[in-house]
Amino acid sequence: MVFKNTASLNRRNLLRAGAAAGVSSLAMPEVSWAQSEKTVKIGNIDPRTGTYAALGGNQIRGATMAVDEINKKGGILGRPVQLLVEDSQGLPGPAVSKAQKLVNQDKVNFLMGSVSSAVSGSLSQFANQHDLVFVDSGGHADAITGKKCTWNTFRTCSTTWMLTAGDFEPLFKKFGKKWFFITPDYAFGHALYTDYVAQLTKAGGTALGNALAPLGTTDFSSYLIQARAAKPDVLICLQAGDDLVNLLKQTVQFGMNTQMTVAGAMQEMEVLEALPPAALLGWWTFEWYWNQPNVPHVADFVKAYKSRYNNKVPTARSWFGYATAHALALAANQAKSLDALKVVRALEGLELPPEVALQPGKCYYRAQDHQMIANMFPGYVPKDASYPNLFDVSQTIPGGDIAKSPEEAGCKMAYPS
Amino acid sequence: MSTSIDAKLALNRKSGGRVVAAMVIWVVLLFVPFWLPMIGGYTDLATRALIYAIAASGLNLLLGYTGGLSFGHAAYFGLGAYGAGLCLIHIAPSVPLAILGGTVLGGIAGILVGPMAMKRKGIYFAMITIAFGQMFYFIAVRWNSLTGGEDGLTGFSRVPLHIGGEAIKLGPERFYYLVLVLFALVMAIIWQILRSPLGHSFVAVRENTTRLRFLGVAVDKQIWVAFAISTFIVALAGTLNALLTGFASPDNLGWQLSGSFVVICVLGGMRSFWGPFLGAVIFIVAQDYLSSVTQNWMSFIGLIFVLAVLFFPQGLLGFIKGRGR
Description:
The complex is a heterodimer.
Chain A (H helix, E strand, L loop, with lengths): L8 H19 L5 H4 L3 E7 L6 H20 L8 E7 L4 H13 L5 E4 L3 H13 L3 E4 L16 E3 L4 H16 L2 E7 L2 H17 L2 E8 L7 H10 L3 E4 L3 H13 L7 E6 L2 H6 L8 E4 L11 H11 L7 H20 L4 H8 L6 H4 L6 E2 L6 E2 L1 E6 L11 E2 L3 E2 H4 L3 H4 L8
Helix pairs in contact in A: 3-12, 4-5, 6-7, 12-13
Chain B lengths: L1 H11 L3 H15 L1 H4 L7 H24 L7 H18 L3 H23 L4 H21 L1 H4 L13 E3 L2 E3 L3 H24 L1 H11 L1 H6 L4 H27 L9 H14 L6 H19 L3 H15 L3 H10 L1
Antiparallel strand pairs in B: 1-2
Helix pairs in contact in B: 4-9, 4-10, 4-12, 4-13, 4-14, 5-6, 5-7, 5-12, 6-12, 9-10, 10-12, 13-14, 13-16, 14-15
């Protein structure tokens, strides 16, 4: 444990100046109070590193594009809007640290973002303690707009219940009654599993087993062996992000895609894009898809997004970020105020205009539980799928038909007096 | 050997310069809520730096002064955090009770783990501490019903302090001062320990275990005592962190955080009383700033550490002191 100082004094002297300069510039964050005093600030906390980096990146892209559009149309209350992006690493601890920074240092007016449900939960609690509007753009756990709903938290993406209800019927009718689950071991996974099993039992099917895999698992072989031994009709994979990529690759390596139907609740463009061609398979639910031929404004949005971002098509995550930022601006402009409670009242029942909704039917934040009611897009990965045609939407299901009522979801909203 | 003489001299000497430097640090810390926002910081950032400074100073009692490289001290930090949260949720909504409960939980775990680790030396000591750390991590992840699993423990907050019938809300500034008072208390305790025969025996363990055994000193017991004291201090930091963020999560117990504590000690200077504090300030500020400007911020943290170990092997404070002589 005794350190010997072997570095020569000359070398140390040489590098000392450089290192000292580096450290001092780190200790002094840039100050931009003067210019930014009049801007409306939206704090966007999304994972830029970690398991969900790809998903978080697209949410940020969507939000950035929306903020540019908002600024072109006169901003919020005639003031320019600034999007401040911070990295949550997909973990609740760093996310709250970043929220503290955004609120105390940057004095943001609104908070949005999150991919992981755990982060959504911690940010929702944080925003509630600070009387701040928080729109959860991409964390799906039911509780956020259910049992743990708060007056200041809204959600753009769907609930886990809606994700499972989106493709339950086609799966059950087409492929069989015996299901096996591989579930990521945290709130989101548990919620998906519970919701599927509730519907499966009600319809008279059986859950043969449930293998819980920790977040960030790279080797799924032990879980796949369990699944194969159970001989199910349908193998439900509830992972997201990189975890799902690894799981699907290994499912194909095990040859299990030929023995049973591989399916799951949520599927994302980012995941399909990362898969090798052999692992492109399965029945899933999308929450938004770029190819909607007969819906107005969608093609324009896709074109603008592609030219802006390196010819990549927008994903559901892009839309979450895009719709969330637009919704905040619309609500604040409608309320003619940045006051949290007034903006909340404006967001309640707020219907997205067609150029923001970008899908058929009515998209709105339900007033009673603050849940966005939009469409679900169940479908399957076609044979010989290639980017960007990685998914065939079999139907669009209006969210209102499958969402739990606020009472069923268990939300009891309490407002500050 | 020169380092040990330095350390002893540093401990005994009360030169004017040191007193002035310490006073400057305390005055600067006392006025953080006033000057930090002016340069674009925020009070919670300073609170976080102080919490990490408490943890690193506690670890350094074992690492720097007793010579035990523990890679599992986040376990006691996390136990403190969960202990505080569980106290607030299940026992009583009281911040002092939460701090006490969490600290005792983490400290008792340290007392129990200590005897199993104390007989191991060098790399084996590091291995066994990391193993116990991961054990607590997986308990926290798996025990869903109590700890909330991967989601962490939520649903508690800094309830107001009740003093003399009056409810005092703990906003960011007041909580900073609460943490500052506890930081001062911890530093005073460590200072007293280092000046006592017990502290001298810690340094002796680090310097020459064999000789100490010949002198009839129960070396293992000294390591155990150092280990236990350091876990109490780290657990205290954990309770404060839970109160700062409003929840406890499994990352509070993981090996990455244990590694960060060691990095903080090494960065600031393991042989220096103020080294862990300096390391914590640099680490937290760098992390906070870099992760806002680039998504590759972890590479830069790594780079800072590599440079520090290469060119300031005694830590920044050790380097500055060496220059001054």
